[in-house]
């Protein structure tokens, strides 16, 4: 059987990324150009700046990807690109670049859902076994996704307000930490103790939905109350307390969902999957459950990249799914 080479493109937020993946599992080249430095002074991603950076970077990122792979566009079987969700101006840069290459080289064009990409980052590490449950935690998403087979996604729970990563970034801002705050909170949490009693928000009994805005407000109130009383807060302990609350709820619901849906595997996906506290808690919880494997990708594959988009795109390619040159970017695309 002939090898399948897919060229992946990701520009949904603040990383301009391209990759070449062989047979859906082997990383041949994976290039990520981050814009974090340009957004830092604004404390978050500025959409207009993100789009402009993508335009400036994308050709160089493509060239470097092909050079590292030692391949050309003629060697590719298809072009896979994130078509949503994300910032519309940012998405359109990748989508239009993908269309141009597909047209120029007469290659199939495949639009990929960003979250499907995050989940498929796992396939670059180990084969997936079904049925499985994926906990997707990123700056824009917090979802439990049930998969009974390749390409089938059922969202069984999601956040009703802030995404987990968003809560991390907002709490970090309250503690005057730089953007993106997740890794900084994670680092501080490792040096502190869970001493502030913060709520665990579980919603109705049996629900797989999440809510993080109340927890975020509780942290902000803790900081303001301390300021008013002229007391110092302990940032390490506050970070540890916040992280413990997030990790407890994520772990609890993931374990319950995995058992109820009787899955073989649990996959962690998205930028917050880089969190050391969450990784340890899930490994610990599933280490004690027989017959359910936990899979956690390396940190470089957790945050936005194009290898995961090409990996998810390979499945769509094999299933015969194609998009036309009229494909658009979709900021609020459902999985
Ligand atoms: O998946 P991603 O790169 O972009 C989105 O699709 O949103 O996720 C970025 C998010 C940010 O909110 C960032 O603070 C968070 O992931 N993040 C972390 C850690 N590393 C990145 N959150 C907690 N702990 C970390 N170590
Ligand atoms: Zn992402």
UniProtKB/TrEMBL annotation:
<dbReference type="GO" id="GO:0005737">
    <property type="term" value="C:cytoplasm"/>
</dbReference>
<dbReference type="GO" id="GO:0002949">
    <property type="term" value="P:tRNA threonylcarbamoyladenosine modification"/>
</dbReference>
<feature type="binding site">
    <location>
        <position position="169"/>
    </location>
    <ligand>
        <name>substrate</name>
    </ligand>
</feature>
<protein>
    <recommendedName>
        <fullName>tRNA N6-adenosine threonylcarbamoyltransferase</fullName>
        <ecNumber>2.3.1.234</ecNumber>
    </recommendedName>
</protein>
<feature type="domain" description="Gcp-like">
    <location>
        <begin position="27"/>
        <end position="310"/>
    </location>
</feature>
<dbReference type="InterPro" id="IPR043129">
    <property type="entry name" value="ATPase_NBD"/>
</dbReference>
<dbReference type="InterPro" id="IPR000905">
    <property type="entry name" value="Gcp-like_dom"/>
</dbReference>
<keyword id="KW-0963">Cytoplasm</keyword>
<feature type="binding site">
    <location>
        <position position="304"/>
    </location>
    <ligand>
        <name>Fe cation</name>
    </ligand>
</feature>
<feature type="binding site">
    <location>
        <position position="186"/>
    </location>
    <ligand>
        <name>substrate</name>
    </ligand>
</feature>
<feature type="binding site">
    <location>
        <begin position="136"/>
        <end position="140"/>
    </location>
    <ligand>
        <name>substrate</name>
    </ligand>
</feature>
<dbReference type="GO" id="GO:0005506">
    <property type="term" value="F:iron ion binding"/>
</dbReference>
<comment type="function">
    <text>Required for the formation of a threonylcarbamoyl group on adenosine at position 37 (t(6)A37) in tRNAs that read codons beginning with adenine. Is involved in the transfer of the threonylcarbamoyl moiety of threonylcarbamoyl-AMP (TC-AMP) to the N6 group of A37, together with TsaE and TsaB. TsaD likely plays a direct catalytic role in this reaction.</text>
</comment>
<feature type="binding site">
    <location>
        <position position="182"/>
    </location>
    <ligand>
        <name>substrate</name>
    </ligand>
</feature>
<keyword id="KW-0408">Iron</keyword>
<keyword id="KW-0808">Transferase</keyword>
<keyword id="KW-0012">Acyltransferase</keyword>
<comment type="similarity">
    <text>Belongs to the KAE1 / TsaD family.</text>
</comment>
<dbReference type="GO" id="GO:0061711">
    <property type="term" value="F:tRNA N(6)-L-threonylcarbamoyladenine synthase activity"/>
</dbReference>
<dbReference type="InterPro" id="IPR017861">
    <property type="entry name" value="KAE1/TsaD"/>
</dbReference>
<dbReference type="Pfam" id="PF00814">
    <property type="entry name" value="TsaD"/>
</dbReference>
<dbReference type="InterPro" id="IPR022450">
    <property type="entry name" value="TsaD"/>
</dbReference>
<feature type="binding site">
    <location>
        <position position="118"/>
    </location>
    <ligand>
        <name>Fe cation</name>
    </ligand>
</feature>
<feature type="binding site">
    <location>
        <position position="275"/>
    </location>
    <ligand>
        <name>substrate</name>
    </ligand>
</feature>
<feature type="binding site">
    <location>
        <position position="114"/>
    </location>
    <ligand>
        <name>Fe cation</name>
    </ligand>
</feature>
<keyword id="KW-0479">Metal-binding</keyword>
<keyword id="KW-0819">tRNA processing</keyword>
<dbReference type="InterPro" id="IPR017860">
    <property type="entry name" value="Peptidase_M22_CS"/>
</dbReference>
